[in-house]
Amino acid sequence: MFGLIGHLTSLEHAQSVARELGYPEYADQGLEFWCSAPPQIVDRIKVTSATGQQIEGLYVESCFLPEMLAGSKIKTAIRKILNAMALAQKNDVDITALGGFSSIIFENFNLSQMSSVRNIQLEFNRFTTGNTHTAYIICRQIEEASRKFGIDLAKATVTVCGATGDIGSAVCRWLDARTNIKELLLVARNQERLQELQAQLGRGKVLEIEDALPQSDIIVWVASMAKGMAIDPANLKRPCILIDGGYPKNMSTLVQEEGIHVIDGGIVEHSLDIDWKIMKIVNMTAPARQLFACFAEAMLLEFEGWHTNFSWGRNQISIENMDKIGEVSIKHGFRPLIN
Ligand code: NDP
User: Model pTM?
Assistant: First the structure.
């Protein structure tokens, strides 16, 4: 069995979901309520592969909210992720994806040092960040969207915002090894890590986001921002492609103007309907078939019987593993979403 650990994007989102699901008493509660709420199994899932194989899984809502990352709630955020992992393990899940901020919190706060949760000893090889499949899907989206919108990669300047992150660094390595892009612009806050990445790649220009945007034909957003930032379309080239892979979204509003193509980054579409209700809650356009690539990674590992932490640690994603997960992604009927 596979598992998915997820969370909602904000307190406001959590309140509206509670209202929608028929829990008005939760809908009026503030952050303190969500801080004390335990993880819940909220969905049981059946997925059929394009090969006909069927698997079952469950969805664990961690009750973590990005607002908890502010100040004194960090311990709460850590507890949420560990408790959700313990719940998945207690339910005999073989491989569970740590969605959205779950894996970021795991890495940032070194949770591998905290493997005891009450009477449960967490077995980390039963969890995956799902980031290898996410990076693979974003790279496919770069290829397919550039073809669709007439951007020649050989003449393109590509910005990766969140370049030093787990997904961002994998995308940079792939762009370097597998494409002939003209220029790679690297954006993040920590300058030391940016210099390190630039040295490893042997290329790339480090820039502030405001300076990178007007030069970019393609912008890949994979920064772990708790809240999206506002983009002024006047600062963007035409045509340009914006691939927003953040959860929550890195861009606070949808930029809809002629020549600006916004893609939901890291999202896949399955070739068959999935028996679940959870993707409706996170506002997917086609909730029976569309999902986060990290969740699809747990499904792929289950389909293939690879019960191992395929994606683990930070900045360890290899192009070989992206190819490997990409091959089984196609085999089981997933494809990158190009809106
Ligand atoms: P990491 O924490 O590994 O990396 C985050 C990167 O963003 C770092 O380079 C960080 O560098 C940078 N960053 C953070 N804040 C800012 C900011 N304000 N401005 C510019 N750069 C910033 O995260 P992941 O690679 O694991 O995940 C990236 C995003 O992808 C997240 O939003 C995550 O939720 C989403 N995601 C989506 C998935 C999907 O299936 N679609 C799956 C998994 C993750 P620095 O701190 O130096 O700024």
Answer: 0.97
